[in-house]
């Protein structure tokens, strides 16, 4: 079922017009025309940036909004109101205090954040080829440039020793950063080949596209390979990768595995955005089982597990939060209300130890919490228009930290 591979030398990349999947009408079917990196060796080699490059372009285009000055508390008050629309879970407008921390530059391209044990917020800046950290106590932001980086830090997580693991999607490696010594260690991934859809006589060389990332109980690094239609695991003791293809035969950019999480039993869960399904990998046997939502119009993105073993995932273009009970295979659907003509674009998802479910509704400029007992969402509208919230995490003081990509800020909500 699996094959083991040693680390592969870094390959330079060139350019081509990349086909972008239709995530939603909100993404306007953007095509990636960007060029990054050194193309001196072979201009036919492709970077294969996948879904996340489309998202980054939208973030950069939307970054012209005004920003809040750093470290200013923003209380929010509004009259509670319920939005009722067909086939949606109601939403109650809630109040909270917001604070914003402006980043040093514009067009940062920030997506997923992670919290360390000192309460610092780590994130990648895809627009500036940087790994960055915010210290909430001082308000200072520090930026580090990863070796051989290519503006592709997407997935990020914190180990038990507060070292930082991240996926460099475009430079095609898994990175490990040690804050105490300011040292990086990188683990290069293999490349894949596929026929050029614009010229069948040419072969393109692509990165596997590591995207989301998570650590298991042994400290091993699991991640999705967006281009290679695979999952993979880095054994941190040996430095060897084990790959788990999601198709019986080699495929490239067909399934788009995206989010990844681990439940309390150690099972690896992931989303396949192309087929709108959730998959489960048993790491002991290599067995993969999939659960489909039967809703091709709702590609799934981020994924998380609660304390009861239920699996949750967001759908960007459908404005949908789904819940899967693995023991029965039954899905529950929670459509979020929206104020415009199209759904608001669910992306970020996090679940606290006491099973609070938080998410970002990017198009609505809103953070939301699902109250399961009351069967409604609580909506916290971000005071800065055009913030474009994407990733979020909740700290031990019940503060919600989020990336405000549209205005180049790290935001904080105290509900």
Write the layout of secondary structure elements.
Layout: E1 3-5, H1 51-61, E2 72-76, E3 82-83, E4 91-93, E5 96-102, E6 110-115, E7 121-125, E8 130-135, E9 140-144, E10 153-158, E11 164-168, E12 173-178, E13 183-188, E14 191-196, E15 199-207, E16 210-215, E17 221-225, E18 230-234, E19 241-245, E20 257-262, E21 268-272, E22 277-281, E23 288-292, E24 300-305, E25 311-315, E26 320-325, E27 330-335, E28 346-351, E29 357-361, E30 366-371, E31 376-381, E32 389-394, E33 400-404, E34 409-414
Parallel strand pairs: 4-31
Antiparallel strand pairs: 1-19, 2-5, 3-4, 5-34, 6-7, 7-8, 8-9, 10-11, 11-12, 12-13, 14-15, 16-17, 17-18, 18-19, 20-21, 21-22, 22-23, 24-25, 25-26, 26-27, 28-29, 29-30, 30-31, 32-33, 33-34
Word description of this protein:
It is built from one helix and 34 strands. It is mainly beta. Mean pLDDT is 83; it is low at 1-48 and 56-85. The longest helix is centred in the N-terminal third of the chain and has 11 residues, at 51-61. A six-stranded mixed beta sheet has the order 3-4-31-30-29-28, with no helix packed on it. A five-stranded antiparallel beta sheet has the order 1-19-18-17-16, with no helix packed on it. Strands 2-5-34-33-32 form a five-stranded antiparallel beta sheet, with no helix packed on it.
């Amino acid at each position: 079922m699996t094959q083991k591979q040693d680390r592969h030398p870094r390959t330079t990349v060139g350019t081509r017009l990349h086909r972008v999947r239709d995530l939603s009408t909100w993404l306007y079917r953007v095509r990636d025309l960007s060029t990054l990196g050194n193309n001196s060796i072979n201009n036919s080699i492709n970077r294969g940036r996948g879904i996340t490059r489309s998202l980054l372009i939208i973030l950069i285009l939307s970054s012209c909004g005004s920003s809040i000055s750093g470290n200013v508390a923003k209380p929010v008050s509004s009259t509670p109101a319920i939005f009722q629309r067909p086939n949606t879970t109601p939403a109650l407008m809630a109040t909270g205090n917001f604070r914003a921390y402006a980043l040093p530059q514009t067009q940062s391209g920030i997506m997923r954040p992670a919290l360390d044990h000192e309460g610092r917020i780590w994130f990648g800046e895809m627009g500036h080829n940087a790994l960055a950290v915010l210290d909430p106590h001082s308000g200072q932001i520090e930026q580090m440039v990863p070796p051989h980086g290519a503006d592709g830090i997407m997935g990020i997580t914190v180990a038990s020793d507060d070292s930082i693991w991240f996926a460099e999607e475009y430079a095609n490696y898994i990175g490990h950063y040690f804050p105490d010594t300011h040292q990086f260690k990188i683990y290069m991934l293999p490349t894949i080949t596929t026929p050029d859809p614009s010229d069948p006589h040419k072969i393109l060389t692509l990165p596997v596209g590591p995207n989301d990332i998570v650590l298991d109980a042994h400290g091993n690094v699991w991640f999705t390979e967006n281009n290679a239609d695979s999952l993979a695991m880095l054994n941190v003791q040996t430095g060897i990768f084990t790959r788990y293809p999601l198709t019986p035969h080699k495929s490239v950019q067909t399934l788009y595995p995206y989010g990844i999480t681990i439940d309390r039993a150690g099972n690896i869960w992931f989303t396949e955005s192309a087929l709108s399904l959730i998959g489960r990998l048993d790491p002991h046997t290599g067995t993969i089982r999939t659960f489909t939502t039967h809703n091709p119009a709702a590609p799934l993105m981020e994924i998380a597990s609660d304390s009861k073993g239920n699996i949750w995932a967001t759908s960007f273009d459908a404005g949908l939060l789904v819940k899967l009970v693995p023991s029965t295979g039954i899905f529950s659907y929670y459509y979020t209300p929206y104020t415009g003509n199209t759904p608001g674009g669910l992306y970020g998802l996090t679940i606290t130890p006491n099973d609070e479910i938080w998410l970002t509704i990017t198009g609505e400029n809103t953070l939301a919490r699902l109250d399961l007992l009351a069967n409604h969402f609580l909506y916290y509208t971000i005071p800065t228009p055009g913030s474009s919230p994407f990733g979020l995490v909740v700290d031990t003081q019940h503060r919600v930290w989020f990336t405000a990509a549209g205005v180049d800020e790290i935001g904080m909500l105290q509900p």
